[in-house]
Specification:
TIM Barrel; alpha/beta
């Protein structure tokens, strides 16, 4: 067994939660709930496969948090009412049967919403057309609309939605923790990002002001769930702009990660296109290393191209505590068992996400 395997296959405490190993399933949008946002038996079976395969932690797909502007996709699951919350209990029970832990990822799509049964329009920090086009494999088509500018009341509603959904996730659904989705171009990341946030009030301006909404959401969620494990997902790239970089460079990383550390988040989940590569300049540090530098007491989950196992050691050496796999987990739902036994890994087949990225029958075998 290599040093890598010894480290990855040992238990790890993340907040109040003990993981049996340091391998996690990354959140992936799979649009397999009912039209009303109720988690399905297909999702129960899908998530159970990962726990059966030995993953210590599974993080759900993004779950929408209110019945206003948060839903991003048709057939996306929600956690906004009792029926939706109770449906998730079957998922958490299935994972717990195999000694796995599962976190609910709470998400507000903001200006990137392309399917919302509660609203005909979108909302975001500023009236800026998002880059790129809607994603066809999530039933999207054409350009994103220009969002309405969120008012103070809209922002308060969004914060409240995160907090109440977090409470439901812990108290009703049986999740072991929650992850606040502050990455990938969705609402909280829209406030953090300079090109999508042109506000001149307290929610806009320099990076320390633009990170404010993430911190306020965290504070509200923390108040709602007490000592339960709560973390934040952060990225530079977005689903509609893969290679975006923070304009402030390392100073921006210091502001973001330092603010999260000061707030007391239990973990920071970093996702980059290739997690081991320099964050800003060719010879510079990775985002993992910068997070470890400026938030040294927070657990760090690293995600991004790490199904290429040669790169796992690089992010571990940079300070990652947990390795989160997306493509690697889809191709190998028993990745931890294969990794422990030195068994060959199956290569990811991208056709599994097309033509629509819902859960396929062959994933449940």
């Amino acid at each position: 067994m290599t040093i890598n395997q010894q480290q990855i296959l040992t238990p790890f405490d993340i907040g109040q939660v003990r993981l049996v190993n340091r391998l996690a399933v990354a959140p992936m949008t799979r649009i397999s709930a009912s039209a009303e946002g109720v988690a399905s038996q297909r999702q129960v079976d899908y998530y159970e496969r990962f726990a059966k395969g030995g993953f210590g932690l599974t993080i759900t797909e993004g779950i929408y948090t209110d019945q206003k502007f948060s839903q991003g996709y048709l057939f996306q699951p929600g956690i906004t009412d009792l029926e939706q919350s109770q449906a998730w209990h079957a998922v958490t029970n299935a994972v717990h049967k195999h000694d796995g832990k599962i976190f609910a990822q709470l998400m507000h799509a903001g200006a990137l919403s392309q399917g919302n049964r509660f609203s005909q329009g979108t909302a975001g920090p500023s009236a800026v057309t998002p880059k790129g086009e809607q994603m066809g494999f999530y039933y999207g088509n054409g350009q994103y609309p220009i969002p309405r500018v969120m008012t103070e009341e809209d922002i308060a509603d969004a914060i409240d939605g995160f907090a109440k959904s977090a409470a439901r996730a812990i108290e009703i659904s049986g999740f072991d923790g929650v992850e606040i989705h502050g990455a990938n171009g969705y609402l909280l990341d829209q406030f953090l990002t300079d090109f999508s946030n042109h506000r001149t009030d307290k929610w806009g301006g320099d990076v320390r002001s633009r990170v404010r909404l993430i911190l306020e959401v965290y504070k509200a969620v923390r108040n709602a769930v007490g000592s339960a494990t709560v973390g934040v997902r952060i990225s530079q790239g977005k689903v509609n702009d893969f290679f975006h970089k923070w304009a402030e460079g390392e100073a921006g990383a210091e502001a973001v990660f330092g603010s999260l550390a000061d707030a007391g988040v239990d973990f920071i989940h970093l996702t980059e296109f290739e997690a081991w590569k320099p964050a800003f300049v060719d010879a510079g540090d990775s985002l993992v290393k910068l997070a470890h530098r400026y938030a040294p007491n927070q657990a760090i989950i690293s995600n991004g191209g790490l199904h290429q196992v040669d790169h796992i050691e690089e992010v571990l050496n940079d300070g990652a505590d947990v390795i989160a796999l997306g493509k690697g987990a889809l191709a190998n739902p028993d990745f931890p068992q294969r990794f422990a036994n030195g068994a060959p890994l199956i290569e990811f087949d991208p056709s599994i996400l097309g033509p629509i990225a819902d859960i396929k029958d062959k994933e449940l075998v």
